[in-house]
Amino acid sequence: MKTREIVTSAQILRLEDDGILRATAFPVHMSLAYAQEVVRATIDLAGGKPRPVLVDIRAQKTVDRAAREYFAGAEAAQGHCALALLVDSPVSKAIGNFFLALSQAPVPRKLFTDEEDAMRWLRGFLR
């Protein structure tokens, strides 16, 4: 499989040879419009097959409420079967877990501070 890449206003997304989609956030405030753009790119890269997704959000500034709600919805889940979010500190992880607990997404989601731990978890969702 050839690596494919899409650059959005908020993230760069790549579908790697291992079948895992990797996204790296830019230092932006994630709005609903940006979230919708990212979801469209994710669905496009997934090519009709939901993929495990690693999103490195360490550089991202904030995520507004509308974007968080959209990311937790059914439309956003079309491109992924599991979502690992990479954060930069245990404090960020604790705050992120609070927000994840507030919304029930249709796919498994988990926060990590270690990329290799996140990748091990995501590999369990490869089909």
Brief characterization of the structure:
With 127 residues, the chain is α/β, with parallel strands linked by helices. The chain has one domain: STAS domain (Transcription Regulator spoIIAA), CATH 3.30.750.
Please outline the helices and strands.
Layout: E1 4-7, E2 11-15, E3 21-25, E4 29-30, H1 32-46, E5 51-56, E6 62-63, H2 65-71, H3 74-77, E7 80-86, H4 90-102, E8 109-112, H5 115-123
Parallel strand pairs: 3-5, 4-6, 5-7, 7-8
Antiparallel strand pairs: 1-2, 2-3
Organism: Sorangium cellulosum (Polyangium cellulosum)
Domain DUF7793: 16-125
Pfam families: DUF7793
Number of domains: 1
Low-confidence stretches: none
> What is the CATH C-level name?
Alpha Beta
CATH topology annotation: Transcription Regulator spoIIAA
- Give average pLDDT, whole number: 89
Percentage of residues in DSSP E strands:
25-35%
Total beta-strand segments? 8
Spatial separation of the terminal alpha carbons: 15 Å
CATH superfamily descriptor:
STAS domain
The biggest beta sheet, please?
6 strands, mixed
Query: Which of globular, elongated, flat, extended, rod-shaped describes the shape?
Result: globular
Which structural class best describes the helix and strand composition?
A: alpha/beta
Radius of gyration: 13 Å
Approximate helicity band: 25-40%
**CATH architecture tag:** 2-Layer Sandwich
- Sheet with most strands: strand arrangement: 1-2-3-5-7-8
